[in-house]
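Quality-control log, excerpt.
Job 1 of 2 completed; input and output follow.
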Amino acid sequence: GAGNKVVGVVDYSDYPKAALKIESVGSYHVLNIEKIIQLNPDLIIAWKTGNRSKDIEKLQQLGYKII
């Protein structure tokens, strides 16, 4: 899998157990934009019904690819 490429997760990520050791970038409804920038991901996976649209828009403005 791609688990070794994951650089950040939300607070509730607990599966697989290895996710507990990955840096948290906030919760599903409040993202830590500064932490995400610091981790410099190639791709961000988000969802419209959980993540705040202003957080997603900010990340898009910064040039991050979001699906």
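Job 2 of 2 completed; input and output follow.
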Amino acid sequence: TNRSLGEGIKACLWEENKNWVEELPHVLWAHRTMVKSSHGDTPFSLTYGTEAVIPAEIGMPTYRTTAVDVVNNDEELRLNLDLLEERRELAAINEARSKSKMTKYYNSRVRGVAFQSGDFVYRSNDASLAAAGGKLGPKREGPYE
């Protein structure tokens, strides 16, 4: 989530990186209304039980906004809220299936590494808490025998 939000903010910013706070609500809206591949639904619909109306649809009549039956709208919203728990359970099942699939793919590509006495190795700076060099600093230190 944090990575996709960071990428969304970077995409909205141009040469000046000062106004990222102004872009944050737009990026969050896009993040909450985008269908997630892991469970096949939007976070907004899993929270509120209905699809979001995007700001462009509010000012301009579309089929979705004109087809709403105002009389039966409250009843349909209650029905959606009743079915919301089923949608959440289905999303949890789909997310578990997706996680299992990703785990299987990852584990199929992992190689075992065996070290012998006397081998030279590099140690991660995260593990040794070496002086922070930022994103451009060295990621490993060594070699050590």
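Post-run check on job 2. The longest helix spans residues 70-109.
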